[in-house]
Amino acid sequence: MACQSIKSSPARVSALIAAVAVSAAFSQVSILVNNVGYEKSGAKRAVVQSSTAIAGGQWYLVDAQGNPVDSGALGAQAAVSGWVGRVFRVADFSSFDRDGDGYKLKVGALESPGFSISEKVLQAKTGADQVGFFNGMRNTTSGDNSLPVFSRATPPPTHNIYGGWNDATGDQGKHLSHLSFANYFNPQQIPLVAWALLHAIELQPGVYGASAKAEAAWGADYLLRSLSTDGFFYMSVFDNWGWGYTTWDKPEDRVTREICAWSYKDGIRSGDYQSAMREGGGVSIAALARAAKAGISGESNAAAYLAGAKRAYAHLKANPTKYQDDEKENIIDYYCGLLAATELYNASPGEGGYRADAREWAAKLLSLQSEDGWFYSGAAGGGQGAQRVRPFYHAADEGLPVAALARYAEVCEPGPDEMPALRAAIGKNLRWYNKITYNEGANPFEYVKMYRADSMAAGSSGGGNLALGRPATASRTEANNAVENAFDGVSTTRWSSYQSGAQNDSQWIAVDLGAVYKVDRVVLNWETASGKNYRIDVSTNGTSWSKAFEIANNDGAGRKEHTFTAVDARHVRMFGITRNLEYGGFSLYEFEVYGELNEPVVEPASHVRFFMPQANETGYWWQGENARIASLSAAFIMGAPIADPSGKLWYDTLFAAATAQFDWILGKNPFGICMMHGYGASGYPDYPGKPGYAFANVKGGICNGITAKRADRNDMEWAPYLNTDTPEENWRWIEQWLPHNAWYLTAVSALSYRIDNPIEEEEVSVKYRGQPVSPRLKISTLKGRNLKIELPFAADQRTEVVIYGIQGKKLYTYNMRPGERSAVVRVPANIARGAYVVSIRDMGGKNMGFGKVFLK
Predict the structure, then answer these.
(1) pLDDT tens-place string over residues 699-748
(2) Which backbone phi and psi does 50 adopt, to 5 degrees?
(3) Other C-beta atoms within 10 Å of 499: how many?
(4) pLDDT at residue number 17
(5) What are the start-end ranges of the H helices in 418-508?
(6) How do residues 35-68 score in pLDDT, each as one tens digit?
(7) What is the DSSP string of 611-625?
(8) Which backbone phi and psi does 741 adopt, to 5 degrees?
(9) Band of the pLDDT at 454, cuts 50, 70, 90?
């Protein structure tokens, strides 16, 4: 992800504005639809949006020639709490299932963009361009075959890390993961792409062939090159988004592009480049093992991929907490470790204890589930007294816990002692998302909501920098160098105590962490005006202070890390005794505090929201929503048959929820933007970035998406700088990024597989007046899409078998012959495969029983 800011020429801004007619404003009334297509057997809904009350009540579906083919009444008008100036009505045409292109929805004189209806429509229309997108994102920087590794040595060591994929259209860096400094926000990047391609190849081999295999091999080769001789993966290739040197270090010690870790918006580099499970290591292992199982080959072959996966897994298993920034495992380690062990077992069953390890990872993951079904992020402390902390929420991979559990259930085939609990856990999580999405206020787009900590402070317990964004005070402050600058996560803003003509020794700056922690580490990023002799003081009440650590002779500016015996502290203070400069005061770019929650964990204030909180432990990252919702689509599709083998959860609830997220990405959103490049009636522009560094949109690429509004977290925002002289700031919205497409590909291929392999019961339970009836009344599916009806009574002159769509529309009636007790009903060819309700009616037209069936 790029996060730089530059000025553009007026000509470039004009060209950008001309490229897309998009802004935060919307037309007075518009019909919002999936601009690509709706699944034939799934939910099909459009949203009518207006800034005022929506008049009229009828919608019409017209074909490519403009002929009406279906109609119905609009749903009741609704407003979404916080979404200012918008009201909505929903048009539901789910029962219409005739194949075709160029359909449009009309309401009065309004007309929607065109769309298709067919089976596996999204895979058919967009699948090839997903593979093409990754191909277009390949990184072929020749210098990467001997790239410096972050080091103080002269010359620094080098490593061949050629290949892989550019992370985003404004970032030619390469990342297995990043944001490790925040501990709870690691996104899975390059390894997820390789795994997603292999997932699609396995589920839809007739669709994803040679080109997809070649792309997966390109990724597997990169992961193998990223593996060090010690057994860890190098996490990132970073070049400050094309800007070169960092601001905090000496230029002569830095190179433009190198293997390193980085943190915060300004890309502060470090040597913490070893990938823990959550930092790309686990999913890299999973991707390599899956590549071996698939038998693909590129520069290397299946045997080499598997050997690399095994070596990396053994290394991380032997060093379970060595590489995490806080040296603790959390939920991300658990689900990444689970995926790694599962794929290793799949590639080499019976070896290495991988199945037993997968079971252990699954148990750790499930130990973090709440009674309501959502997951905690981790635990403070250890042993049986460990307290679970912070609801798990994530801007890119929120569906990965369930996706990993579903993959485990499929591959490792848990036994009867484990499977019921696994089914129940996945079911609880999926039903939780259904509850907060559909039962927490109006949600006409069916956008899957998140449950998250209300603030960064509540989310920080046991996590990363505890001081980030916290209230702070100082003995005094130089104008324009405010005290809060030392706690904003930005290494170019600073606090300074300097006062002209005054005594500038003996000054301090203190932060209130909001709760008592076991503090054991402080990091100070000094400006040139640094402290020579200073103390770290702590207090539980802000009044009585004690010394935790003292530095007698600091050698100058830069990041200084101070570790000491853990001490109880709510307030932490840097007390500057003497300065390094004769002129100037004490000046800090950043003041970071780390520790563990000491008080009994109080459940953080949490809320159901639409979008990521902009105040969080990363200090700046809150975009990426399209990856998040696509990952949850994947979780719904993969998890539904595990949670409920009858298919009821899938067909009644999750099928519609999963496809609604695709609808949002493909144009059915409040801004009417199709966020897959090259599709739809209204798209988004190229990300400007740094000239000569950022590159043009790749067809099929998905951008970061719609976010909460910065000025009002209850409202939403889309690319607010498009019509300004700083359009580069729109990287949060319009930049294409690998995880969006990786999750979209995972979810769409899983959906196509589910359509090909429906969830069904051989025999449908039948009810009469809400109660089960005699077992002799049965409705069974047969080969050839036929139904077998067995009655507990002889049919009379008007006994009917009626097939209804899941929206209640009557599709077909079969009259049984008088005296018959059983019959085979041949379902007409024009009734598509999918879920239906079958009703049995007697002579008086009363419902004698009904059941749900799935027609292949």
Answers:
(1) 999 999 999 988 788 899 999 888 887 788 889 999 999 999 999 999 99
(2) -150, 160
(3) 15
(4) 37
(5) 419-438, 456-459
(6) 999 999 899 999 999 999 998 889 999 999 999 9
(7) S--SSSTTSS----H
(8) -75, -35
(9) low
- Do you know the residue count of the chain? 856
What are all long-range contacts of 548-554, with beta carbons under 8 Å and residues at least 24 apart?
Answer: 548/519, 548/522, 549/522, 554/526, 554/530, 554/580
Q: How far apart are CA 768 and CA 574, in angstroms?
A: 74
Cβ-proximal residues to 256 (8 Å cutoff; 6+ apart), any chain: 239, 240, 244, 245
Q: How far apart are CA 705 and CA 718, in angstroms?
A: 7
Contact 135, 210 (CB under 8 A): no
For the question of whether the overall pTM of this predicted structure is more than 0.70, the answer is yes
Query: Is the pLDDT score of 240 beyond 50?
Result: yes
Which domains are delineated in the chain? 487-597 (2.60.120.260), 763-855 (2.60.40.10)
pLDDT per position as a tens digit, 597-631: 665 444 456 689 999 988 787 878 888 899 999 99
Distance in angstroms (rounded) separating the CA atoms of residues 380 and 596: 7
C-alpha to C-alpha distance for 351 and 122, rounded to whole angstroms? 38
Residue 43, CA distances (Å) to 306, 651, 754, 830 in order: 41, 10, 15, 18
At residue 56, the pLDDT reads: 80
813 phi and psi, to 5 degrees? -125, 135
Q: Are 442 and 600 in contact (CB under 8 A)?
A: no
Q: CA dist 425 to 325, 362, 397, 659, 856, Å?
A: 29, 11, 18, 23, 29
Alpha helical stretches, state H, 295-330: 302-318
Instruction: Give the relative orientation of helices 302-318 and 282-294 as an angle to the nearest 10 degrees.
Output: 150
Among all chains, which residue has been given the structure tokens 């300074």?
A: 496
> Cβ(374)–Cβ(365) under 8 Å?
no
